[in-house]
Design a protein that fits this description.
224 residues; alpha+beta; 5-stranded antiparallel beta sheet
């Protein structure tokens, strides 16, 4: 196992000598079921916070990173740098259940006179989405930077990140009974953010310090 979340947990393991860490790599949904039932103490996998999850799981007070959501376009395009530039243009189809679909719905509600065009689809893979954009069927694909990086590392399509459009906090989810564990995670996580460890880890894995403001991220990595 490797990645930002894995290294983050390894850092926690080093700092929290009173706990013995054991890891299992399983599907995201299985993690959630296991934490709710008490089989696992916690789950970490770029989870967003929402009322439904807050009813089932304990959240800490300190996020351990952010999901940088980006517009993916063909690498020869220079006309898309924000959601505003997507007015009247076509996003690749999205599942109604995805959190990013809500972002588009909210945006279109405020711009009903010239909305972003997007179709709902029950099942679509990331590989299909990037392929459609590369073929010119759609103007852009809205997804997490990490998802795009992982998918296109294999497909090697002529695509690029046009801009980061949202920055969403990501959280560790705990079993409801693990209040002491959550408090200690918060304490160490805050320390690792303040001393620059997690920003540096973000740079290592994502080539961007996701703890910066979204404006600073886009200014530092100019895609225009």
């Amino acid at each position: 196992m490797e990645g930002y979340t894995v290294e983050y947990l390894q850092l926690l393991d080093e700092h929290l000598e009173e706990y013995e860490f054991e890891y299992e790599q399983i599907a995201r949904e299985a993690m959630l079921v296991g934490v709710e039932s008490g089989k696992y103490d916690l789950a970490a996998n770029f989870y967003y916070r929402n009322p439904e999850r807050e009813a089932k799981y304990l959240f800490g007070k300190v996020e351990y990173g952010y999901s940088l959501n980006s517009l993916i376009v063909k690498d020869d395009r220079d006309d898309i740098h924000s959601l505003d530039d997507m007015k009247g243009k076509k996003l690749s189809p999205m599942s109604p259940s995805t959190g990013l679909r809500t972002l588009v719905v909210d945006y279109n509600g405020k711009n009903a006179d010239n909305p972003i065009i997007v179709e709902d689809i029950d099942a679509v893979t990331d590989a299909e989405s990037v392929q459609w954009v590369a073929e010119g069927k759609y103007d852009a694909y809205l997804t997490n930077k990490t998802v795009f990086d992982n998918v296109n590392a294999e497909l090697k399509l002529p695509l690029k990140i046009a801009a980061y459009v949202t920055k969403e906090p990501i959280w560790v989810l705990y079993n409801k009974e693990k209040t002491d564990l959550a408090a200690r995670f918060d304490e160490v996580t805050r320390q690792l953010i303040d001393d620059g460890t997690l920003p540096a880890l973000s740079e290592k894995w994502f080539d961007v310090n996701m703890f910066q403001s979204l404006e600073d991220v886009n200014e530092q990595y100019q895609f225009r």
